[in-house]
Amino acid sequence: MSAAATETETLLESPGGSPLRRIAWHWRHNPKRELWGAWFTIIAFYNVFTVVFFIMTHTQPPPKPWLDAHGVVRWFDGYHNALLIGFGVMFVLTGMTVAQNALIAYSMRRMSVHPGFGYAYLVLYSLAGVPGSLLLCIVLTVGAMRPDRDPALMSWLYDFAFLSYVGTMGVFLVGSLVWMTAILLDKNNVFPKWFGYLNLCNALTEVVVSPAWIFHRGVFAWNGLIAWWIDMVVFGVYTGAFISLLRNMIQREDFGTGPLPELVPNKPNKPDKPGKAKRGPDSPSTMGAAR
Amino acid sequence: MTTSSVKEAEAGKAVPFVPGQPDMWFFALFETLVFTAYFVVYMFARMQHHEAFLQSQAKLSLSIGTFNTLVLLVSSWSMARCVKEARVGAYRSALTNAFLTASFGVVFLGSKIYEWVREIRLGYGFASDEFFSYYFFLTGIHALHLLIGFVVLGVVVHQLRSPERRSQNLVETGAVYWHTVDFLWVLVFSLLYVVR
Amino acid sequence: MKRADGELILLWTVPALALIWISAFFLFPGFIHPMSPEMSSNEVAAFYRDSSNLDRIRGSMILFNWFCVGMIPALTLIVMQIRRMAHRTPVLSYCMLGCTAGGPTLFLIANLFWLIAAFRPERAPDQTQMLNDLAWVTFTTAVPFLIAQSVVIALAIYLDRQPEPVFRPWVAHFNLVVAAALVPAAFVGLAMKDGVMAWNGLLPFWVKNAAIAVWIVVMGVELGRVIYRQRAAEESEAVEAVAGAGA
């Protein structure tokens, strides 16, 4: 980790030209390429996730929990190909979530807190991918691939999928609390304190969703106004906030151990200025998006 | 919670816009918005089944609810006193008020649990009646905020205890949280118990 | 620098584990001629009710249950090697660490479905078939973290810019090829007829599992080479240090 330690001190000049050439330049010279790579992977993943879950398979917002067995069979029929192709894409790309967990764990290593926080978050959220998303993909794939299966079994698969997906709470709850505690204790100003408190709001949604295990219909069911919609809005705000704050963190990163410096306003080398502008080492690269 | 950085911030800034960290005010605003969303959903359901809601609501004990509210309001008063005392450097008195606040919180929680047990004994559980679903949800999520409030009070006490810490900013931040919980209760109380 | 003990033990778990996995693989009657997704529920039920099959299903799956997480110790050695690379941040090693648990966990879930199906073979054929489907789909699609792991290793090697990089560059290319070989298995739900894309077909079964096997062998050998070289270098450094102190 000592190589190119002086690079941050000097201004690097990115060549203009085609996006490919710029990506190649950042890949070779940008000292923050690992961080930017992880950040762009997060962006790419949430785009894929939105397309697959909200647009293709219509598993978000979740379908009705009160469907009878024949309704469930009809639901599987309606989304047969979308489920099989969409979740195929998820099986290929769900591994991208590790970039998010790694970058967030890194943010905690940059703080003035015990290393245990970062590792705890990494383990919690790496674990979360299986019950929190992949089980749904597996079980709905099994349901969709044999449309002539006994409707009672289809209904069981349907419940299994959505309850495991919506009802996986503990890892996200504890993970958010770990991140919150780290941010509130941190003296390096890696994240603003309000985001620490926003972690608590996110953790509380994991409590609010728990009635989904009890109710078959109404606002507390797995697609209910309170258990799903309001929680989803909070989660959306939370996700948007941390994605932009992580970007902010990478831009401010100085590879030191003390307080993270603030961004200097009105820099001559605006990061998103195209063309032949002089680029600081902290200008975002697009190298991650390329892979 | 950091002391040194906060102290620097206190020294650096001229007149703070709000007492405590503005970040906690953001939290208060955000949680109020989330609760408002819950209330809107509740009021909508109530409009749909007005009669049924009124019948179930009649089973609630208004006196316990009023008692809850009074206890929590008093706890907010002692919290405010705690901040005031800490501001003038009377840390011993501030500590006493912090503990007083915590004990009012415990009384509130105790009477809440008593009320819940009473309603469940009467046959109104979380899933048995629509009004009571909302009732248990709203009071439960509020009680959870109160439990977190005890952690916040712990931080305040921790700050007040040692002369090396004593960040007025953090004490006030904790107070903002406590008042938010109190404020949310007043809303929950008026919507669940009072509005007919 | 004092060397911590036990690294070689973790490394040499790989061949021992490979042996166990291969024997469990051939013990399971549904793998040598992989079961077809076209089998009717009665045929699937008959497969589990056949007493000669049943013992082998249980035996092999209990063996897998014990050892399917057995790769994790060796995978952590790769995490440690990534930490030695000339990176600016530990992000890639965290990515690798995040991947290590995911693959085995998914395999473990598939394993549970097989064992549950075999626990009560007298269950209604439809139910046995569903458990069998769950097992096969979980087993076949258990690639997300394996793909991510190979891509992360490849990226880490490409970014390891020092005169003597930890892994040789071809290891990175090899990992990308393995990642690509695992991709078709993700779409197994689409092919319910026998063919190259079915779960017993060429791509999702033979290519995927061969890729995993080759990956284990190649990475095991490469990791061994790297670790032994590292130890030799550290030893000579230590000798020099002692000599320097004596002089």
Report a brief summary of the structure.
The complex is a heterotrimer of chains A (291), B (196) and C (247). Chain B is mainly α and 196 residues long. Chain B has seven helices and no strands.
What does this structure look like?
With about 290 residues, chain A is mostly helical. Chain A is about 65% helix and about 0% strand. Chain A has one domain. The longest helix of chain A is centred in the middle third of the chain and has 31 residues. The radius of gyration of chain A is 22 Å and the shape is globular. The two termini of chain A are about 25 Å apart. Chain B is mainly α and about 200 residues long. Chain B has one domain: Cytochrome c oxidase, subunit III, four-helix bundle (Four Helix Bundle (Hemerythrin (Met), subunit A), Up-down Bundle), CATH 1.20.120.80. In chain B, about 80% of the residues lie in helices and about 0% in strands. Chain B has 7 helices and no strands. In chain B, helix 2 packs parallel to helix 7. In chain B, about 35% of the residues are buried. The model of chain C has no long low-confidence stretch (mean pLDDT about 90). Chain C has one domain. Chain C has 10 helices and no strands. Chain C has about 250 residues and is mainly alpha-helical. In chain C, about 75% of the residues lie in helices and about 0% in strands. Chains in contact: A-B, A-C.
The parts of chain C where pLDDT drops under 50 for at least 5 residues are none
What spatial form of chain C do the alpha-carbon principal axes imply? elongated
CATH fold topology of chain B: Four Helix Bundle (Hemerythrin (Met), subunit A)
Q: Which of globular, elongated, flat, extended, rod-shaped describes the shape of chain B?
A: elongated
